Structure formats: C-alpha cells, structure tokens
Amino acid sequence: MKVSYYPGCTLKSQARPLEEAARAAMARLGVELAELPRWNCCGVVHPLAADELMGHVAAVRNLVRAQEAGDGPLVTLCAMCYNTLARANRLMREQPDKLAVLNSFMDEEPDYQGGVRVEHLLGFLAREVGWEAVARQVRRPLTGWRVAAYYGCKLQRPREVAVEPPGSFQLLGGLLRALGATVVNFPATDLCCGSYQVLAEPALARELSSRILTRAGEAGAELLALSCPLCHYNLSRAAATGDPAGARPVYFTELLAWAFGEKEALEASWRPGPAREEGGHGRSADSPA
Amino acid sequence: MLVIKQNQTPTRQAARRLGALSGLEVALCMQCGACAGACPLVGHMDHNPRQIMRQLQLGLGETLVGCRAPWVCATCDTCNVVCPRGLDVPRVMEALRVARLRAEPDAVHPGGFAREELSQSPTIALVAAFRKVTG
C-alpha cells in the first residue's frame, strides 16, 4: 500500500530519526510513505485571528499537493504538522469564502477542493493497519520496558482535530502494548512542554519539561514515547541537565522500528539505558530517585 | 525574555476590535476560572486567562494592551478543552498579540530570544516563535 506522506521541516534536520524509523517500520508493514513532491513548511502554528488569511497559505498549498497526489489520506508524523494541516483543512471546508480567496491568491495552483483527509500516523496505524498486524511484525518485543505515552498539546487539542478525545490515551497506549511494552500511566501525559516558548522563555520551558520527565519517572517510566520534534527537543534538553531519575524521550516510531528489528533506525538518537544493556528491566517504580 | 514596549500609544480602537479579532463572544464566559486553573503557564502571567476574559467583558481591552500574558501563552489549548462554555480562549490571546502588533509592528522585539536557544533550537521552534512575535 502506498500512502501520501507530508514530512515537515524538522523531520529533514533535527528530527530525522522520527522519519527514518517510520519509513523502516512502515515498510515492514507493507506501507510505503510516498513523500509529497514540492511540499513546503506547514507554518507550524495555526493562525487564530478571525480575519487572518495569508497565514494559511502555506498549509493549504500542501493540501493542494496532497490533492494532486490522489485519493487516500495524507499522513503526517509530526504532531504540530498534523495539527496545522488538519485545522487549515477544516477551516477551508467550513469557510468557503476564505477558500475562494486563497484559491484566487494561489492562481498558479489548481483550486483546492477540500477533499483531503489529514491523518496522523498513529490514527492511520490504528484504523488502517490495526494493532494485531503491528504485533505480528514484532521481532524484538519490548517486554519489561516501562514506557509512558506522552501526547503533549497538539495531538488532542483542540477537540475538533483530536486524534482521539482529550483525556483518552488509547492510540499510543495501544501501539506500545502491541510492541510488548508495559504502559505506564502518569499525570502529565498531555501537559505542555513549553513549546516554542523555549526561545522567549527558556527557563519556563525547562520548568515544564522537567516536571513532565520527573512525573513520568515517579510513575516508574523509563521512556516517554512521543511524536513531536519540539517536545523531543525540550524534553531532551531537560533530561540532559535535570532529574537523573526522570524518564527519557523517544520517538514512538523509534520504538516501533526497534521492536520490528530495525536497530539501525534507532542508533542515531537513542539507545537502551544502562539497565537495559545489562539485561535488566529498567528502573522500578519504588527505586530511589 | 521578550522585550515588550510599555509606552505604547493609545490603541482604543485596536482594543475595541479584540472581540472581532478573536471571533469569540466573550459575554458567554461565566468566570468559572477553569481556564486559569488548567493553564500550565498561569504562574508566569500578569493577568490570568479568566481576568483577561473579564476585562474584555467590561470593555476594558485597552488595559491589556501592554500585558505580558499573551506573550507567555504557548497556545497549548489546555484552556480551550476545559472551558465549560466551549470558548476557544487561545483565540483571545492571539487577538491580544495581533492587535498589538498591528498597531505597533515592533512592539515585541525578538532580540529578546535567548541567544543559545536561537543557535540550537530546531526549525519547528524557530518558525513557531517568530510567527507569534511578528504577527
């Protein structure tokens, strides 16, 4: 099966492991991620002012590319790209006057018709592949690995583009269970990491990210599975200097590729912790911080 | 930390436009404070989201023109999903940012971005942060 795929800026630079692991893992599942030709930055943040129009051009131009690529969903890996593309898509469907202006503005492009379905890979895996098919490909089960699902802000908020309803964490949880991991629940699954405020208010982003890692660590998690390159950056920075008992961030696709036996896909950004290399089962919930 | 100009010219007109810019019916807010209670950054704000909604209800938007809160907001949408009235509070924060920048394009100086972070941050952070402070 071939599916249209939108990478996004950071997946070609700092977040390459997110993409490389996804490609390797999806190939094992018989799915080819067909990268959109001539894609451009999605804009990262969805402009919210009611009269804003030009701020949506970048996202809508990508939807035109997806429309040209044909039927089927447009799959993203980055949570922020997913959110921005899905919200722009929704806006174009709900406000035909804005769509008409943008189509007119982009007169070198075919008109966008509003028919593209934007999907995050997690939703695509759950609905189009299924956890049983994922589990069948596992060569190296994550047995005994204590992993927490971390959703951050953009997978579930706002409600109208949520990959699953806010407060429900079945998608990432289902994937981790299919890979054989022990899923650890913790009370900061959808707490903001500080996001882009790392530039204006780095101390504030550090404070939030450290809180997330510490709470996951306290709940007994050694790893945090996530899908956002910005969360990964903020949490990695906090992990490098913060609480040594805190959990460490890893892209969910890296765990998928690892469990499928694609070790190389993981080596760039993440390796099993010392406890894992010694054959142990990681930190337990009651070990001293 | 961002440098936000405090000696701005009166922007009554911009303040009056805040409701239209946000697209929200601020009168629907019943001041329950769920937004402020859930906001992960409220401790760093000079006006919390509930207070901002109240000022707007009272037509006092101009008192918010120089405030820091919208520049601390990370648009994480936590307030949005907890609001019992279904108000998209981040749109109010965006309206405050946009109104300020339209009245005074250099009101916020990105020179306040941390130098170390500018050199290390991934593209996703740079694009998001610069879009928010340049309107």
Task: Give short descriptive properties of this protein.
heterodimer, A: 289 residues, alpha/beta, four-stranded parallel sheet, 44% helix, 10% strand, globular, B: 135 residues, mainly alpha, two-stranded antiparallel sheet, 9 helices, 2 strands
How does this structure look, described?
The complex is a heterodimer of chains A (289) and B (135). Chain A is of the alpha/beta class and 289 residues long. Chain A has helices at residues 16-28, 57-69, 79-94, 96-105, 121-129, 131-136, 170-178, 197-200, 202-218, 229-241, 252-259, 264-267, 274-277; strands at residues 2-6, 32-35, 74-76, 118-120, 146-149, 182-184, 223-226, 248-251. In chain A, strands 2-1-3-4 form a 4-stranded parallel sheet, with helices on both faces. In chain A, strands 6-5-7-8 form a 4-stranded parallel sheet, with helices on both faces. The longest helix of chain A has 17 residues, at 202-218. Chain A is globular, with a radius of gyration of 19 Å. Mean pLDDT of chain A is 91; it is low at 274-289. Chain B is mainly α and 135 residues long. In chain B, 48% of the residues lie in helices and 3% in strands. Chain B has a two-stranded antiparallel sheet. The radius of gyration of chain B is 15 Å and the shape is globular. Chain B starts with a strand and ends with a helix. The interface between A and B is large, with 43 and 42 residues.
